[in-house]
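in:
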């Protein structure tokens, strides 16, 4: 088993109840039903029946400098905090034009123009996040990235501010498919 592989599986069981699934750009994911309204974030491959499964791997921070990584590490909280009863899964696929850019051109758009990391730092530690890369898998996946956010219900408006700011950047002009799955922890 690849220790960096994780699966998001929507089905009848799981610690997260799906509140809504919304296509922001492009095609959505299948809507949840009473028998497929739960989500599990699992290490490795998902087993059993699922309405949909998304897979990604934990990887290195692609566009962060050493100084940015240190700033993030100093304030980033781990996932699974007891008070983090809300979560949002945002799968994203970027355009061929994005992937045709060199690494330094993507970095310039990502941080120097869009300020992605700098914006995110303003919302830490209240909003924890983890990024999973899908392009690193041997199979073609429907998304390039899966971003998982966790936060307390008191921070929903701050999370919405974070999303609005990121979606207003030049980087987001390269997003061709984005889905927003909102969840609440069960039990």
């Amino acid at each position: 088993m690849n220790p960096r592989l994780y699966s998001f599986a929507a089905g009848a069981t799981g610690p997260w109840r799906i509140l809504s699934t919304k296509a922001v750009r492009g095609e959505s994911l299948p809507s949840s039903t009473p028998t497929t309204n739960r989500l599990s974030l699992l290490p490795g491959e998902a087993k059993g029946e699922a309405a949909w499964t998304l897979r990604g791997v934990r990887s290195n921070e692609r566009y962060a400098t050493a100084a940015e990584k240190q700033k993030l590490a100093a304030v980033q909280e781990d996932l699974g905090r007891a008070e983090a009863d809300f979560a949002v899964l945002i799968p994203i696929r970027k355009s061929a034009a994005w992937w045709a850019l060199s690494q330094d051109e993507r970095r310039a758009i990502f941080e120097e123009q869009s300020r992605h990391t700098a914006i995110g730092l303003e919302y830490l530690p209240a909003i924890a996040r983890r990024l999973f890369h899908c392009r690193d898998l041997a199979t073609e996946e429907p998304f390039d990235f899966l971003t998982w956010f966790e936060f307390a219900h008191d921070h929903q408006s701050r999370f919405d501010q974070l999303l609005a700011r990121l979606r207003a950047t030049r980087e987001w002009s390269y997003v061709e498919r984005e889905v927003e799955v909102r969840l609440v922890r069960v039990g």
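note: The radius of gyration is 16 Å.
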